[in-house]
Amino acid sequence: MPAEHYYPADESTALHASQTRWPGFDLLAASDDIRRPTEWQIHEPRHTVIVHLGGRMTRLETEQDAHGGSRGPALPGECWMIPAGQRYSSRAQGEIIDYAVLSLDPMPPAAWIDGINRPFDLAAGSAIRDAFLHQGVLQLLDAAKEGSDLALMFGQNLGQLLWLHLNRTHKDPRSLALRVAENRLTYDATRARRLRDFIHDRLGESLGIEQLAQLVGQSTHQMLVSFRATFGKTPWQYIIAERLRCAERLLKDSTKDITTIAFEAGFSSHSHLTRVFRTRLGSSPTEFRAAHRQSWTPGWR
């Protein structure tokens, strides 16, 4: 299957791009001006992982084979997982952004580790939080920029560790037969987009399973099964994750007080938002806002 990709790379958007090759994977670091609507297309025989590094987005919509995709601007450190052979597309707008694209072989190089002699299936995913992967990619970019013998040796070992991390943490646990069976339960792009947009536009409202089932013309049981097969989460898990992402964006990009942000994002109170933040992110909303108000310079490092 031929590789097709657009990251994007035309002169109207690309400000900087550099690619380094390591055993088993390639790493692209790029900066793009997305003040005009910008599109990405990916369809490759290798697994692809996109990591948003910084910069402000006002809009991002992604779609992916056999996965519901995402809606809502990317936050620093969020990752998108595109398994080999799947098609991915996205539309974005904002300001200047930095991102990294990790392209890796499903089968590890023979020189790496004895006993791992089969490929791994990457699980599709959108807006995934993985602090280890995020920091690992930053360290790889540092090593590539330094370029010394020790830095390159460090990069090779770190790349192997990241491949193993992806294999252990983001491997699709389903058998081929089960993936084929579950793909028959996934929504087509139109119904997935309808559900995704309905939830995103009503994060500050009370949402119920019956509403979502009615939207796609299914019973609540059918909707629960199909939703999980499409988005990889239950509706409630998905709604909480999107409310948290909304709160993070407002904390980072607005001056609204935390109580107002809590209500706009769909949390019942300031304390409810704080409790979810501490449980999932390990900090309070106030601490998160302070940490993400630090200066960011467009163009990676």
List the helices and strands and how they pair.
Blueprint: E1 4-6, E2 14-22, E3 25-33, E4 38-43, E5 47-64, E6 67-71, E7 78-82, E8 87-104, E9 125-129, H1 131-146, H2 149-169, H3 176-183, H4 189-200, H5 209-215, H6 220-231, H7 235-253, H8 258-265, H9 270-281, H10 285-291
Antiparallel strand pairs: 1-4, 2-3, 3-8, 4-8, 5-6, 5-7, 5-8, 7-9
Helix pairs in contact: 1-2, 5-6, 7-8
Overall description:
The protein has 301 residues and is α+β, with helices and mostly antiparallel strands. It is 41% helix and 26% strand. The chain has ten helices and nine strands. The protein has helices at 131-146, 149-169, 176-183, 189-200, 209-215, 220-231, 235-253, 258-265, 270-281, 285-291, and strands at residues 4-6, 14-22, 25-33, 38-43, 47-64, 67-71, 78-82, 87-104, 125-129. Strands 1, 2, 3, 4, 5, 6, 7, 8 and 9 form a nine-stranded antiparallel sheet that branches. A hairpin with a 2-residue loop joins strand 5 and strand 6. Helix 1 runs antiparallel to helix 2 and helix 7 (235-253) packs antiparallel against helix 8 (258-265). The longest helix has 21 residues, at 149-169. The protein is globular and about 55 Å long. The relative contact order is 0.13.
